[in-house]
Specification:
heterodimer, A: mainly alpha, B: 4-stranded antiparallel sheet, 39% helix
């Protein structure tokens, strides 16, 4: 488990596809946290995380710099989340047309949706650090190493992220994601 | 330090990233500053929330789902690609009885371990004292049956109720045993074939006892042993203990005199002799090594072997099968040690007979049941083998005789594989 992303990616490309499981293990929690914040439910996050990882696997040969696998994976996850949400909206619009008297059943939220949603709203550079630190099980110095930045920058980024998260968590959330888009 | 400076580095303080002097400065400031204390409290709350949510999220396991989906998609893609080039490509010829081979090899590995199990009887009562060894979460060891120079080495990784087992003379086969579900997954990494074997019954039971056996055998020495003194064993200084159990099994354990961890365990019961060595305890082991999931790229074949009964008839048929691929000659010797050494060769020779796969599978299973029968004899009944140099059909030559448990007469097997009951005084000389 201690090998770098680059090592596993090259192993996969060299005909050891099974080594992809180490990548899955490494990033599944990170992806789930990221996607739960965007999609609002554990099940949807799991579905999207799985799809993101599978998509990453089949597009691995297009990854130019294996060292930046993580950012690339988040990018894929963002696209998957967007697609899922679009599908969901279409689906819900149809539902609404079918029966506009019935209140749509509230989806099962993940454990700490408020927190996950707040993380999902962080700017990319802050989000990466928070996800790796708390969902990827990395220490700050490991985060620094992986993202190729000085430890001081990680600390500062984390400080700022804490401030943003606190601010965001203090504002009561609108149930915006359940709205039907016009 | 003022409040602004303190707040600036509170997160770093919380993450324990500050140098000792800075840390001290923050601590000092916090003592007198309620505002910064409150700030720290808030940050701590948020950190706890992040950590606990991180833990919850980490409980979801996508690994198998993702890997399975990749395999499915890979197959779909392959099919599409194959269709596109249909007619151009030659079909890959799959070796006819690779499944048989995997299965047979796997069963042979079981047989090897069973030899040890039979020594273990539930009546053994020993104090549970040697805590660290008994409670080892993982054990890695090598085991060999019979002569140390020539016998194949069995490498075992034991993690709780799972065992990963490989044998040095069948390197392409790996066996993963799950004692809880009594299933065994045998993988042939040469042909990428997987066989899931139901080992409910004595085989599963035997393997279960084997794991306990390993641990209890060490406890055994606690109450009733003689010291063998210090000696150089496998290149290291070791202190030796010997004990004789209730079933006349002889056990020798060589351990590191400082750590008391075992270096080598030797067992002798009647004609059965096994050595366990190269122990490693509580080494972290990748879950995937003992996973019962079929790895991506492997084709799974569901097989169930009936190993619940091993009879004299199986043993005799096993001898007949042997002669079939050895110019009619009976084996030079028999026993667990021989089975372990010769089974891979036997399965390859059977492969060359160009028989239907089921037929070879059936023969191999019979042979293995015969070996199991013999193994039971090894622990409980006297027997004699005299088949070396004898050809199938020599009706006047006795090749094997044994005394079934509780019987006054002996069973004698002749060179034509007929059997008769004989009084002890009329036994072959």
């Amino acid at each position: 488990m201690s090998e770098t992303d680059t090592y596993y990616i090259e192993r996969c490309l060299d005909g050891h596809p099974d080594d992809f499981r180490y990548i899955v293990r490494r990033y599944q929690a990170v992806l789930l946290a990221h996607l739960a914040g965007k999609l609002g439910s554990k099940d949807k996050a799991e579905e999207a995380a799985q799809e993101s990882l599978v998509r990453a696997y089949f597009n691995m040969n297009k990854l130019k710099r294996p060292g930046s696998f993580f950012s690339w994976l988040l990018g894929i996850a963002d696209r998957v989340a967007k697609e899922h949400r679009r599908k969901e909206q279409l689906h819900r619009q149809r539902e609404v047309i079918r029966s506009f008297s019935d209140e749509a059943a509230s989806p099962e939220l993940s454990q700490d949706y408020g927190l996950e949603a707040a993380i999902a709203e962080l700017p990319e550079s802050y989000r990466r650090v928070v996800l790796l630190r708390y969902y990827g099980g990395r220490s700050c110095s490991q985060v620094a190493e992986q993202l190729d930045m000085p430890l001081g920058t990680v600390t500062k980024t984390l400080s700022r992220a804490y401030a943003m998260l606190r601010k965001s968590l203090q504002q009561p959330k609108e149930t915006e994601i359940y709205e039907v888009q016009k | 330090m003022n409040c602004a400076e303190c707040k600036e580095i509170l997160v770093a303080y919380l993450e324990e990233l500050l140098a000792e002097s800075e840390k001290q400065a923050v601590s000092d400031h916090l003592k007198d500053c309620h505002s910064c204390q409150a700030e720290l409290k808030q940050l701590t709350n948020l950190q706890e929330r992040l950590v606990s949510n991180g833990r919850v999220v980490a409980q979801s396991d996508l690994e198998n789902d993702v890997m399975n989906q990749i395999v499915r998609e890979q197959n779909v893609r392959l099919k599409v690609a194959q269709k596109a080039t249909a007619g151009l490509k030659l079909r890959r010829i799959i070796m006819k009885s690779s499944i048989t081979r995997v299965a047979a090899a796997a069963v042979v590995l079981i047989v090897a371990a069973l030899g040890v199990n039979y020594i273990m009887t539930p009546s053994v009562t020993f104090a549970d004292v040697i805590e660290p060894i008994i409670n080892a979460k993982t054990v890695i060891l090598d085991m060999l049956v019979g002569d140390e120079e020539t016998s194949p080495l069995m490498h075992e990784i034991v993690v709780g109720s799972r065992i990963r087992r490989t044998l040095s003379n069948m390197e392409h086969v790996t066996q993963i045993i799950d004692l809880e579900s009594e299933k065994m997954l045998a993988l042939d990494n040469r042909d990428k074939k997987a066989v899931l074997v139901d080992i409910t019954g004595p085989v599963g039971e035997g393997s279960r006892i084997y794991v306990e056996f390993l641990q209890r055998e060490l406890v055994k020495l606690k109450d009733n042993y003689t010291e063998l003194g210090e000696q150089e064993i496998d290149g290291q200084k070791a202190i030796g203990f010997a004990a004789t159990g209730q079933n006349n099994e002889e056990v020798k354990v060589w351990a590191n005199p400082k750590t008391a961890l075992p270096i080598r365990v030797e067992l002798r019961v009647g004609q059965f002799f096994a050595i366990m060595k190269n122990f490693q305890f509580d080494v972290p082991i990748e879950d995937s090594l003992v996973s019962m999931e079929v790895p991506p790229g492997y084709a799974l074949h569901q097989t169930t072997f009936d190993l619940t009964k091993a009879t004299e008839q199986d043993f005799i048929e096993g001898l007949r099968i042997w002669t079939r691929v050895h110019d009619g000659l009976f084996p030079e010797a028999i026993g667990t040690e021989v089975t372990m050494k010769k089974a891979p060769m036997l399965s390859e020779k059977l492969d060359q007979l160009n028989l239907p796969e089921e037929e070879i599978g059936r023969m191999m299973m019979t042979y293995v049941r015969g070996a199991l029968f013999l193994q039971m004899l090894e622990r409980q009944s006297p027997f004699q083998y005299a088949g070396n140099g004898v050809k199938l059909g020599e009706a006047d030559t006795a090749i094997f005789w044994y005394q079934p448990k509780g019987s006054k007469t002996w069973r004698v097997v002749n060179g034509d594989l007929s059997v008769r009951d004989v009084a002890p005084e009329d036994l072959p000389k």
